Amino acid sequence: MKKIFNEEVIKKIDQFEVNLPPDDWIALLAKTNAKRRIVPLWWYPVAATISIVLVIGILISISINTYYNGNVLIAKKFHYEQYHNTKKIIDKKNRDVIQSFKSITSEENYIATILTQRDSFNAKETFENNISGDIANIDCTENNSATDEDNTIAKEIDKHNVEKHVINSEKSLDDYAKDFIKEEDFRNEKSKDNHKNGSKKVFARDFYTFANSSVLPSKLDSRGVRDNNKILSSPNGGQSIISPLYSKTSHYLPVSAGIIVGIPIVDRLSISTGLQYTYLFSKTSNYENTSDVLVSTNEQNLHYLGVPISVNYKFLNKKIVQLYVSTGTTIDKGISKVDIYRYYENGVNMPDRQTEDKSKIKGLQMSINASLGASITIFKGFSLYVEPKISWYIPNAKNPQPTSKITTSPFLFNLSGGLRWDFGKK
Amino acid sequence: MSYVESDALNEIINGCKNNNQKSQKHLYEKYSKQMVALCFRYTSDYEEARDLMHDGFIKIFSNIGSYSGIGSFEGWMKRVFVNISLDYIKKQPQYTDIEVLEYTEIEKNDFILEEEDDISIEDIYNAIKELPNIARTVFNLFNIEGYSISEISQELNMTNVAVRSQHHRAKEKLKEILKRVREKD
């Protein structure tokens, strides 16, 4: 296609001037002051990404703190229980000893041995010091230095243990000791369970990465569109003009591959992000209208690099099979557009001439995605997954993207699959 | 541009980078008429062209820091105004309804307008403004701004065939208008 002006004429047209009103500079100044700063489009996804990362970081730190604090709480309560039960039994034992004092037997020594092994045993020194002395002098009253909280906890424990602590004069001290040991062992078992349960609620240190690709057979995803076969009117409205050429255009579904990292937040909920490459292909073939002879073709290759961000919820988590739902957004940036033109001047299928044209793609392409996924564990830490997904590609009005499948059919159904690797999983 | 002129321009540019209003006014006075004429070639509406020219200067004043000094400053400015004009064109309702109207072998109907021709630059300028919207845009980008067909097709989201046909349409229409002007004279 040749230019219709020479360089001189072009220069003169380019430098042509049009008069402006004398107060135009004032009008420009007024506009400059009134103009608000326009936030570029890309700031919003960047801000959203930073916000999500901050929220994840805060949630992680809260979860870790809860874990440690929870353990401390569990341990503290255990010690309270142990302490008070020991004290109670000591007190009751003291009473028993006092009440059933006849003579000091080896049973008292046995009880003393057991009870001195308790770290939180408060009265052990008193007991030991007086074991050979006058037992009646042992202070068997309630420990008055206990705090209100201690007493409250003691009362709560008493509600569960009151039957065991009823003094039975027919029961020997040895029996009491055995009961206490049983109770102690039972409590130890229970505290171990609490630890286990607590750890299940602890922040699960699972991270995973996977590669995915989404492909559909070309026959299923392309649809030729015929253009230019119109009988038209000229600008004057009278004469008909028949286009000598018509085109067929096929847009193919996007093919993508990437690496994603998932960060769990709580037990079944996780956030994933990563890097994704997407390839879009379109082919336009131009034919002569009368003879249907192929004149030229244009193959458009679009390359995008994107960042997907999604929230995933695992609603079934068995040893071999996992099912989950996922929703999120992907921000794609066009890296390059390559057009390959082929010209068939002699009307046969071999091109006579071929040119290649590379150009940049302006602007971003955002999409919103929702999917349902299933994964099967193949061996430790590795699983295969399949994920049917529906995507909506949001049109960019400011920087329209090159015509492709995602611009002509913004709602797309896609099938994704890949390999997932859970590293750090115990 | 002479040494003196380029020094003066550099001073204005540096002043604008420091947000000096006086320098901004100098820059505006130097280029505003030319830039409004550029925008007018795309919009064919004077008030819209003025608006776009103002927007262009606001953008230049805020982004002049990104001009590295490589290449002509005037060329850099023109790109800004062309992009603003194209953004305006793309938002117009007629833009979304592009059809490929006709495609003929333009080499046969080619004509070059020489300087010796009796048509003034003003007549050509006004004739360009009378072209239909999309055809005018394609014509301006290809003939005046020097864009290639693939650049135009990417910019306007059209096929190459559509670009060629719109350019041909512009040429045919321009011929008609200039014929009318010659006959009037």
Ordered list of secondary-structure elements with their pairings:
The complex is a heterodimer of chains A (426) and B (185).
Chain A (H helix, E strand, L loop, with lengths): L6 H8 L9 H11 L8 H57 L6 H11 L7 H7 L17 H14 L11 H29 L5 E8 L3 H4 L2 E4 L3 E3 L6 E3 L2 E7 L3 E10 L4 E20 L5 E24 L3 E23 L9 E7 L4 E16 L2 E13 L10 H4 L2 E13 L3
Antiparallel strand pairs in A: 1-6, 1-13, 2-5, 3-4, 5-7, 6-7, 7-8, 8-9, 9-10, 9-11, 11-12, 12-13
Helix pairs in contact in A: 3-6, 3-7, 4-7
Chain B lengths: L2 H15 L3 H23 L2 H18 L9 H19 L29 H9 L3 H12 L4 H8 L3 H25 L1
What does this structure look like?
The complex is a heterodimer of chains A (426) and B (185). By secondary structure, chain A is α+β, with helices and mostly antiparallel strands. Chain A has helices spanning 7-14, 24-34, 43-99, 106-116, 124-130, 148-161, 173-201, 218-221, 405-408, and strands at residues 207-214, 224-227, 231-233, 240-242, 245-251, 255-264, 269-288, 294-317, 321-343, 353-359, 364-379, 382-394, 411-423. The longest helix of chain A is centred in the N-terminal third of the chain and has 57 residues, at 43-99. The two termini of chain A are 67 Å apart. Chain B is mostly helical and 185 residues long. Chain B is globular. Chains A and B meet through helix 1, helix 2, strand 5 and strand 9 of A and helix 2, helix 3, helix 4, helix 5 and helix 6 of B.
